[in-house]
Design brief:
This protein has about 150 residues and is α/β, with parallel strands linked by helices. It is about 50% helix and about 20% strand. Strands 4-3-2-1-5 form a five-stranded parallel sheet, with helices on both faces.
């Protein structure tokens, strides 16, 4: 092999190493946000799940590090009716909504409970296709599924 070819090959190899190291540093500096969907249908687990969500935000370093969606259906949705929700629950939900928690209310459950979005705590969106379908959609977008 000629010296010129050896020098070219060596420079190309060193350049490749620098490019790979730079890509690794960029990936480590700006990892993708984690994405999680919490599934809540049990009325007796509302406080527990909201505590898990708070711990999740805190453990990950805040809402800028993790995207969390909460999908509520079945009996659990009753806890989020604005007229009957406890002040503590309303405050927590308001804080979560400001932090970017995506609050999904199952349209089928809303119909069964005869409530509209205005009847729920602020921040909820209606999921017309149903809560379990929304969960499956989020999972197909890379969300990890949690059902505490």
């Amino acid at each position: 092999m000629h010296r010129r070819n050896m020098l070219t090959a060596a420079l190309a190899g060193v350049g490749g190493l620098f490019a790979a190291a730079s890509a690794t540093r960029q990936a480590a500096a700006a990892p993708d946000k984690a994405k999680v969907v919490y599934h809540l249908s049990d009325l007796d687990k509302v406080a527990f799940v909201l505590g898990n969500i708070r711990n999740h935000f805190d453990g990950m370093g805040g809402p800028d590090k993790v995207t969390i969606a909460l999908v509520v259906h079945g009996p659990a949705l009753k806890a989020f009716h604005a007229k009957t929700a406890s002040p503590d629950l309303a405050r927590h939900v308001g804080d979560f909504a400001k932090s970017g928690l995506e609050l999904n209310a199952c349209g089928n459950t809303m119909k069964a409970q005869q409530v509209a979005l205005i009847d729920l705590l602020p921040g909820f969106i209606k999921v017309d296709q149903g809560g379990v379908v929304r969960i499956a959609e989020l999972q197909s977008m890379g969300y990890a599924y949690l059902r505490p």
